[in-house]
User: Fold 3-deoxy-7-phosphoheptulonate synthase from Peptoniphilus faecalis.
Amino acid sequence: MKDKLSKGKIVKIKEVKVGGNKPIIIAGPCSIESREHIVDEALSLKEIGVDILRGGAFKPRTSPFDFQGLGFEAVKYLKEASEKSNLPIVTEVLSEEHVEKMKDYVDAFQIGSRNMYNYALLKKVGKTMKPIILKRGFSATIREWEMAAKYIEAEGNENIIFCERGIRTFETELRNTLDLAGAYLLKEKTGYPVIVDPSHGTGKRELIFPMVKAVLALGLDAVMIEVHPNPDEAMSDAAQTIDYKTYEKIAKYVGEFNENRI
Assistant:
C-alpha cells in the first residue's frame, strides 16, 4: 500500500525521477580534488549503485584559509565524469554570474545553505528551468525555506527539490541538528520532493547509515551522501565522509528497500 506522500510531485534530473515511491541516492565527494579523483569516483559509485553524482566545485567555507574548491575547472571535470559514467550530475552554484556559464555543464543546480536567502540567485537559477536542489539555510524556519522556493516558482520553474541538511541549535555534540520532522512536514505541505543530507546534518560518518534508514522510513525521496575513497584524506568535511565499503552497505539497503516496497 502506497503512503500518501508518494502522491507528490516528481522532478526529473535527466532520466532519474526524484519523488514518487522510490527513494534514490545522490552521492559523491564534498569537493572535487582533481580530474582523476572525480572520474574514478564516478565509475566506482556507478559500479556499486548510485542514481545521481554530486561533487563540489565552488566551496564556500567558514574559514577563508580552508580549501575553496577548484572552481570552474572542477565543473568541467564533473561533466567529463558524467559522460564516462552515464550519471546525471549536480553541483552547487554560488553566484549569479556563474549560472549562465555552468548551465550547459550540469543537470541540476544546488543552492547551498548559505545562499538560501540569496533571492537574486534564486531568481536567476529559476529562469534556467533546470532542476534546483534547494538546501535549507542553517538558521531558516520551515516557512522561510518554503518561501525561498517561491522565488524559483515565480520564474515559472517548478523543478524544485527541497534538501534538509540540518539546522543550527544549542546542541554541540553534532555539527547540526537534522530536522527530519520538518522535512516530513514540508513534503506533506508542498508535495515537492524532499531529500535529506545526513552528512552535513550530523557531521559524523557513523551516524549517516542510521539516518538513511530513518529517511526511508519516513517516505522521503532521496539521501545525499558524501563519499571518498580515503575519507580521512578528503580535502573537506572528512569527519562526515564515508568510504566505499560503508557506502556499498547503504546502497544495498536502499536497493532492498525499493525491491520490497509495494
